[in-house]
Amino acid sequence: xxxxxxxxxxxxxxxxxxxxxxxxxxxxxxxxxxxxxxxxxxxxxxxxxxxxxxxxxxxxxxxxxxxxxxxxxxxxxxxxxxxxxxxxxxxxxxxxxxxxxxxxxxxxxxxxxxxxxxxxxxxxxxxxxxxxxxxxxxxxxxxxxxxxxxxxxxxxxxxxxxxxxxxxxxxxxxxxxxxxxxxxxxxxxxxxxxxxxxxxxxxxxxxxxxxxxxxxxxxxxxxxxxxxxxxxxxxxxxxxxxxxxxxxxxxxxxxxxxxxxxxxxxxxxxxxxxxxxxxxxxxxxxxxxxxxxxxxxxxxxxxxxxxxxxxxxxxxxxxxxxxxxxxxxxxxxxxxxxxxxxxxxxxxxxxxxxxxxxxxxxxxxxxxxxxxxxxxxxxxxxxxxxxxxxxxxxxxxxxxxxxxxxxxxxxxxxxxxxxxxxxxxxxxxxxxxxxxxxxxxxxxxxxxxxxxxxxxxxxxxxxxxxxxxxxxxxxxxxxxxxxxxxxxxxxxxxxxxxxxxxxxxxxxxxxxxxxxxxx
Length: 519
Known about the structure:
Subcellular location: Endomembrane system
Order of helices and strands: HHHHHHHHHHHHHHHHHHHH
Distance between the termini: 30 Å
Membrane topology: Multi-pass membrane protein
GO molecular function: basic amino acid transmembrane transporter activity
Structural class: mainly alpha
Helix content: over 70%
Radius of gyration: 23 Å
CATH topology of the largest domain: Growth Hormone, Chain: A
Protein name: Major facilitator superfamily domain-containing protein
Strand content: under 5%
Low-confidence stretches: 1-13
CATH architecture of the largest domain: Up-down Bundle
Transmembrane segments: 25-52, 64-83, 95-114, 120-141, 153-173, 179-199, 220-238, 250-268, 288-309, 324-343, 355-374, 380-406, 418-440, 493-511
Number of helices: 20
Mean pLDDT: 84
CATH class of the largest domain: Mainly Alpha
């Protein structure tokens, strides 16, 4: 009898569902905990968009605020591709508890941070848990839900993650204006404790491998190389044009290491890795490659939009953090609507490509429209329409590509493909946010240096870049210069988002339009 020599995930079996019933936890409760964790982890990636200005000014480090979200995204992307395989080895329960502990401890430390360094480290700890919460939700659903119902439950997970990322900015602004920014992190603690209790006391452990196969199942080397590549990339883009010149040896060295590490990662994964994060078989599949590539570039667009829109409404239009966040709520509804509509369409027709191409084309137009936003409130309807269309497209494509991902592969390859799309998505998170922040910060600094003159110019520029929310203390003429510089910088960020949306559309075009049977 042949033996399976390289299982990526133990095949879902009725035994798992029977053990779940025997434990008394119930599928509804476990789904609720998984969705809650996914929602909080996704929201935590964007909740800082409307509060990092306040945090940066309080810590006198406004020019370093990019680290508040990039540290979270960087750490979440570091282990996220490994969590599925780690849970193969140690069991789902064990890894669920570990990632919940990371997220809980990191959130508590974020709320207690006293400076930018402490906050960035705490965000990195929370990111280790957040990445696992989002990845394992899909894995556990795949284990425990019968095949015919799996699409419905997977849509719950996808929707909570997508809505969480979309609504984070509003929650951050509202909580900041009513309670204070530290509460944005403390709100994760009560649901985190509840989930820890459910997983530790009620959920049975399952799907474990023998200890002799531990290292064989985990691509430690690949994950380490990717971590080096992402870390050096974030350091370079956060420093270049901001605290150091792009020609600075430190920045050049970090970029060189990053490029070399990315090249080594792809070579290692496609050539030498025993259990690669990027399976050569999956890379050769048009649907898997198209789904992963579209997610990488779409999340670059999404992170740019999520970062830029609140800053535009607060810095250019003069809204408070909570009011700026309120403007993102309709986009959140559009995201949820997009998730729901694409599921209904695919369920009714069994096709997905044409629908995804159409909504992605409108997403591109919405991103192009954002570049045209004026610095006044005269075109609020146009701004509102752009956010609605972009949100609907984002929700549709994220869910639709998860379905297209598995439409043309064997069942035993599901885990590998799922890990791969999360790898591309999380890397898109990191690269998209760091590149967009670098563009805005470098442009802002350049515009200020060109337009603020005089003996105190350097002092004024440093004050503006480290305490942006206190610009009102300056004279009206300097305030006008700062406002113009911010507006032009944000427009450049929107241009970057538009370019990413175009490439995401091209990635969707290369996919096959497989037919999905009803059973």
